[in-house]
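It is worth pausing here to work through a concrete case rather than discussing structure prediction in the abstract. The textbook approach is simple: state the sequence, then state the predicted structure, then interpret. We follow exactly that order.
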Amino acid sequence: MSMPTDPLVETSTSTAHAYAANRANWDGRAAVHATSAAYDVEGLVADPTRISSVIRTDMALLAPHLGGTRIDDDAPLDGLDVCHLQCHIGTDTVSMARLGARVTGVDLSPGSLAVARDLAQRCEIDARWVESEVSEASSAVGGTFDHVHTSIGTICWVQDLDGWARTIAALLRPGGTFFFRDQHPALAAMNDLVRDDVRLGNRYWPLPLGRAFTYSDGMTYTDGDYSQIKAARNYEWPHPVSQTLQALLDAGLHLVAVAEHESLPWQALPVMVPGEDGFVLPMPWREQLPVAWSVVARKPAQG
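Step two, the predicted structure:
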């Protein structure tokens, strides 16, 4: 796993400029991730029963809230129309299809979607892929779903969280569920350049409109050939727990479950070490700081 070499720097930028830079950066990352051991594309192709580790973890949290579906079901999403926002190269989207879903993957990066289409074809999975920034996904997709899914490493790339939540609500059918899991914003506030300590170093609260954090180190969070990342500059935005939950509530969704977790699929801080399910903080920090969190929400049923 690579570690960042450049600090986050606050800057003034338009959202359109930031998204264009992120699109180019993620096109490059997709080329790296397509052959990365972390994404295990060839393993998914070779084994039609294989499910990504991200979706295995997600389903353990989500399945109890899917209308009585058993946690140990082989197909907890059977018969459901699922929209996967910020799907990247499609490994998690394909995994949800293998759990019974009819899937639509949405991402702003055409390079990522090209890898996703190829993966689905090689896995003989029927999937729809839509290129769109997440806040415009409802009109781009043009339909509604039983379940909307977004996990993991997603909302830091979204400036307008209220628009994000409204998109989710618009994509859901009445009674439909939404699942979210991501890095905990408290962890994101830690200094990820300090190698032997856990220390505050980044902003926790939202940025004013027109501001973003930026860095340009030409790296990503997996193994691979980084020379394929031609556009190194990217932009991101911090979103505290309260902002995320309030955005979902303001969009009309009902919270079903909120949880905090001690493992994350990538090494967000240099001191994190491999655990049974991803990377964890060593003691005593593991007892002091959550590294991930998750939300299950539901759109109210009509009548």
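Step three, interpretation. The chain has a mean pLDDT of 93. The chain has nine helices and 13 strands.
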